[in-house]
Amino acid sequence: MLLEIDAQSQTPIYQQICHQLIIGIAKNKLKPGEMLPSVRQMADEIGVNMMTVSKAYTLLKSDGYILTDRRNGTKVAEKKSLDPLFQQRFLNDLELLLAEASIHQLSENKIQEEVKQIYKKFEQ
């Protein structure tokens, strides 16, 4: 599994790793039960510090996207049912994004079109 890391991005590398793995899971490029590289392997593959990968894996584990076991390694977790804490965080984040869209005069129709197009990527 090779991720594309942008060292010039304002997004921290550990967040880039998290985002790309979550998108990979949503698009079924990473299947439940699939083994992920160890922290060391991932760090070597993408050329970053092991602590950066470790931080990403820790966050992904705490959010339930991956499972880790010292003997069996790290693997993709089963897809989750809707969690009220996630739903609240999602709505808070969405409200902020929609506020920014409103400030930039992005129309509701355009937003809905974009959401539909993006969501289709995850249904395949």
UniProtKB/TrEMBL annotation:
GO molecular function: DNA binding; DNA-binding transcription factor activity
InterPro entries recorded: Tscrpt_reg_HTH_GntR, WH-like_DNA-bd_sf, WH_DNA-bd_sf
Domain HTH gntR-type: start-end pairs: 11-79
Entry keyword set: DNA-binding, Transcription, Transcription regulation
Record flagged with keyword Transcription regulation: yes
This protein's name: HTH gntR-type domain-containing protein
Organism: Candidatus Enterococcus palustris
